[in-house]
Amino acid sequence: MYKIGHIAKQLNVSTDTLRYYERQGLLQASVRSPAGYRLYDDSALEQMRFIVRAKAVGFSLKDIQELLTIKIDKHNHSCEEVKSLTLQKLTQTRQRIEELLKFERSLSVLAERCCGGEESADDCSILTALEDVDGSA
Amino acid sequence: MYKIGHIAKQLNVSTDTLRYYERQGLLQASVRSPAGYRLYDDSALEQMRFIVRAKAVGFSLKDIQELLTIKIDKHNHSCEEVKSLTLQKLTQTRQRIEELLKFERSLSVLAERCCGGEESADDCSILTALEDVDGSA
DNA sequence: CTTGACCTTGAACTCAACTCTAAGGTTTAT
DNA sequence: ATAAACCTTAGAGTTGAGTTCAAGGTCAAG
């Protein structure tokens, strides 16, 4: 049985994060020591690894709650549910990437056109582009 | 002179947003009517357009504050300052895109491998991938 | 003169995922 | 026996960009 600090070090998260996940219903300590310390067993460690991995591929804590619900009772859930969650997250991620790519292109154009010199910003092409109605950036 | 609702409709933002920007020091109403209503003139409208455009290329409100400070007194600021803000935002944006692309690739792989069928999730490849130490996704 | 569409304020609330604080109890090593 | 390094709790704070609420004042039309 491991104390919270041990789990935290193993998985490179803070003890606060572990307590926070507990409050969020993601990971309960297996038992408490007589003094009230959280004690985790190997299966709790594995569950925390699952959470960390799911985060690493972009799932939110809310998504992870759903994944855990399924994982804990796989037999009464379908592959389709899991795939659906994954595809939904994929779509969201792609939409966000598209948005950021638009930002990236606009910012690139702005930066390229600007001399970036020490002289005054009176004729700065970036400011001008943001002022003018002609939003060609 | 325009009332807040007029500006809001013109620029497709809420009146709450305009009041919020005022609190943040981004855009003051030009004057107040005898009844205390905010009244904006054309230059305030132009400034709000600037803010909206700057947001549209990915600047945060904090960034926009800095841009406005420069814009209001261009003569005492350099092109370099503006370009620096832009490049900084560009770097941030690219970093975030990289992170999301990693998510995207992982999620794609997970989704591709999963049958997504109606059958139970007992052998779901997505769950298995997130459980196993072998993080090949 | 009243109805409806405006406008005002301050303050609290939202979301996500933590992080920090205060005030204390426990364990381990010396 | 005492100091260092753990652990506990409830609750507040953080970031960013707003949104919502309550309680009220104003303005134009009919």
From TrEMBL, chains A, B:
- Which PROSITE patterns does this entry report, sorted A to Z? HTH_MERR_1, HTH_MERR_2
Q: Name one GO molecular function term.
A: DNA-binding transcription factor activity
Q: Which residue numbers delimit the HTH merR-type domain?
A: 1-70
Which InterPro entries does the annotation name? Answer: DNA-bd_dom_put_sf, MerR-type_HTH_dom, MerR_fam
Q: Source organism's superkingdom?
A: Bacteria
Assigned keywords, A-Z: DNA-binding
Database matches in NCBIfam families: PRK09514.1 (NF007069)
This chain's protein is named Zn(2+)-responsive transcriptional regulator
Recorded source organism is Pseudoalteromonas rubra
